[in-house]
Structure to design on (80 residues):
């Protein structure tokens, strides 16, 4: 559907589900968007077994998890 990216450092994460939340592992620089049913779960990074941090777009934490720059929404429309 869409993805977000940071204009300052180039970090980007894609959204497969229609919510504005993603979880991110700073150590492995890996982010994932999950279904609404899984938002309350503590997501664990498979690379380091640590809990991933939650980021909610349109909130005060709408900042890049790498450089703290502002994230930009980029919409991708798919033609049927």
């Amino acid at each position: 559907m869409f993805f977000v990216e940071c204009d300052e450092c180039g970090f980007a994460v894609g959204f497969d589900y229609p919510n504005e939340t993603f979880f991110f592992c700073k150590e492995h620089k890996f982010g994932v968007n999950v279904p609404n049913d899984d938002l309350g779960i503590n997501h664990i990074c498979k690379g380091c077994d640590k809990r991933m941090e939650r980021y909610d777009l349109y909130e005060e934490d709408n900042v890049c998890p790498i450089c703290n720059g502002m994230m930009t929404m980029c919409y991708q429309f798919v033609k049927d």
In short: The chain is about 0% helix and 30% strand. The CA atoms of residues 13 and 43 lie 16 Å apart.
